[in-house]
Amino acid sequence: MASIDRYDVIIIGSGAGGGTLFWKLAPSGKKILLLERGGFVPREKDNWSTRAVFLESKYKAHETWYDKDGKPFHPGTHYNVGGNTKVYGAALLRFREDDFKEIRHAGGISPAWPIRYEEIAPYYTQAEYLYHVHGLRGSDPTEPPADKPYPHPPVSHEPRIQELNDDLKCIGLSPFPLPLGVRLDEKDPVNSACVRCNSCDGFPCLVNAKSDSQVVCIQPSLKYSNAMLLTGAYVRRIETSSSGREVTKVIVEREGRTEEYSAGVVVVSAGAINSAALLLRSANDKHPKGLANRSDVVGRHYMCHNNSALLAISKKPNPTVFQKTLAVNDYYHRGEDWDSPMGHIQMLGKSDYEMLSMEAPTLAPNMVLRTMASHSLDFWMTSEDLPDPSNRVTVAADGKLKLHYTANNEEGHQRLVKRLKSMLNQIGCEDQHLIPFNLYLGKKIPLAGVAHQCGTVRFGDDPNTSVLDRNCKAHEVDNLYVVDGSFFASSTAVNPGLTIIANALRVGEQLLRRL
Ligand SMILES: Cc1cc2nc3c(=O)[nH]c(=O)nc-3n(C[C@H](O)[C@H](O)[C@H](O)COP(=O)(O)OP(=O)(O)OC[C@H]3O[C@@H](n4cnc5c(N)ncnc54)[C@H](O)[C@@H]3O)c2cc1C
Ligand code: SF4
Q: 429 pLDDT exceeds 50?
């Protein structure tokens, strides 16, 4: 076993949480080590190939996990520098003010967070500036207060989406420009980093114009000689002193060897599922149920949203290239005839023929699939799932990772899907926009869709019901922090990325005071 230098801070995982924290700490002059199990996503034409990305899963983790019945599945997750932000759709929304409070849903209670919206609001602003978010304040009827405008104007709608926007307004809704982290300059297309292509949501960006944590945080931080990244560094275990009160060693497998690293502060940010698994694997005499797990909460309360994709096939062609520009929050808190939260609607990246043939190989002959792809409007719907202690990550004695999950709070989501269809049937209040939607292809995202994983190492004020305190430090371990999506107390109903980023900046500020 090789023994290596001591650091001031070790961060495990380079995604939204870990990569952002690395950026925050790098200028401090302290020795910071970022450990990432994957390598860099190669820059190659396949980055933008539907076949390579979706059909061949070229950039996905090659791992098998197991469901609650022991059935194997391949998780939709990515192990590489930048984590899942390399392939995310870069829809970067703040949680609503009410999301931080207790909310009654049809399926139960969404608990209050230990911090209020106002405590994280300044970091949301910093996160929006760091990740180059394009948006329009005041356009989203449910958006929380903000102290500054977005750093960039909203990404414009292409004509078909502008038409959809106008039609939705015509039936009394308030569609708004989806806040997006892409480095697009529509006023200066010649010099714009982003070329507004059709391969963004779910793909790595070949021209490094997406605001992912590698591009906006990790690369710029590596210019500091005190900030170091080790790739291919799989953290197997974390060890503590004999009292169990402090982390002493991080055990890493790299290039076939086992290595040990140590630091004054260790921050876990391996993604909600892997962070829980790492703490569970790190059980010892003082932490028999897993590191920092006296409460038995580590791995529990796994959430991932009730998510559905819906393709609305209309008679009118949809030649849109970059479709993910519009969202609807009118049903976020309640529906017209339903007094509970329903959720959020946003456009998906434009589906193409190859994606449809993968989803429905026997559905229709090729020509029909091509016609469907060229006529579809593609939507993504997100509703809140609730933290249930029996929805959990466990690690078997042989190391196999098991994800026990039973969906809950589904009625609001089902109503949202129904409402979207009826909205689309309704639109066309101006003659020239009359578009009969005559076919819907809908799909609830299955267990393997772990994109919005969160909640497995929750924060809170009570050490009996939470693992982390309000600053994301483990209640039981003095130098252990967690900054990925696992700290969430509830899943809310918008994408998690910006909140993970903002929280990493918030925790980073605490750490700078501590170091
Ligand atoms: C296709 C797709 C589209 C998405 N679109 C959006 C979107 O539009 N908006 C949005 O807000 N969110 C989106 N998300 C979700 C978003 O990407 C995640 O919420 C976010 O990246 C999670 O950040 P994280 O820090 O928790 O973990 P991750 O980004 O998953 O990073 C975890 C990192 O830890 C590393 N790691 C894991 N285990 C170990 C270990 N044992 N040792 C060392 N390293 C380890 C992993 O390799 C990874 O790099 C999307 C996700 C996917 C997959
Ligand atoms: S739309 Fe822009 S940011 Fe997205 S993949 Fe294409 S060039 Fe990159």
A: no
What's the CA gap between 233 and 217, in Å, rounded? Answer: 19
Provide the β-strand partners of residue 104: 109
| 433: its two tokens | 């926009």
**480 Cα–ligand 1 center, Å:** 20
| The token pair that represents 415 in the structure block | 């109503």
Please tell me what DSSP assigns to residue 449: -
Q: Whose CA is nearest to atom 35 of ligand 1?
A: 13
The token duo for 71 is: 């059935």
Cα–Cα distance measured from residue 256 to residue 417, given in angstroms and rounded to the nearest whole number = 48
483 CA closest ligand 1 atom index = 25
Q: In this predicted model, what pLDDT tens digit does every residue of 289-335 receive, in sequence order? A: 999 999 999 999 999 999 999 988 887 889 999 999 999 999 999 99
Q: What is the DSSP string of 485-504?
A: GGG-S---SS-SHHHHHHHH
Q: Which residues have a Cβ under 8 Å from the Cβ of 258 and sit 6 or more positions away?
A: 1, 2, 236, 251, 252
Q: What does DSSP assign to residue 385?
A: P
What is the C-alpha to C-alpha distance for residues 405 and 299, in angstroms, rounded to an integer? Answer: 11
Sole residue written with tokens 């899943």: 491
Q: Which tokens go with 359? A: 């989803």
- Give yes or no for residue 178 CB within 6 A of ligand 1: no
C-alpha span between 177 and 285 (Å, rounded):
53
Atom of ligand 1 nearest to the CA of 201: 3
Query: pTM value?
Result: 0.97
* Two structure tokens written together for 176: 């708004």
d(Cα 168, Cα 162) in Å, to the nearest integer? 10
Topology (CATH level 3) of domain 2-514: FAD/NAD(P)-binding domain (3.50.50)
Rounded CA-CA distance 198/374 in Å is 13
Residue closest by Cα to atom 1 of ligand 2? 196
Distance 378 CA to ligand 1 centre (A): 23
Q: What is the distance between the terminal CA atoms of the chain, rounded to a whole angstrom? A: 29
Which two tokens mark 256?
A: 């076939």
Considering only CA atoms, which of 330, 238, 248 is closest in space to residue 291?
A: 238
328 lines ligand 2 (CB under 6 A): no
Using CB atoms within 10 Å of the CB of residue 174, give its burial: 0 to 12 exposed, 13 to 18 middle, 19+ buried.
middle
Q: Please report, for the chain, how many H helices and E strands are present, in that order.
A: 11, 21
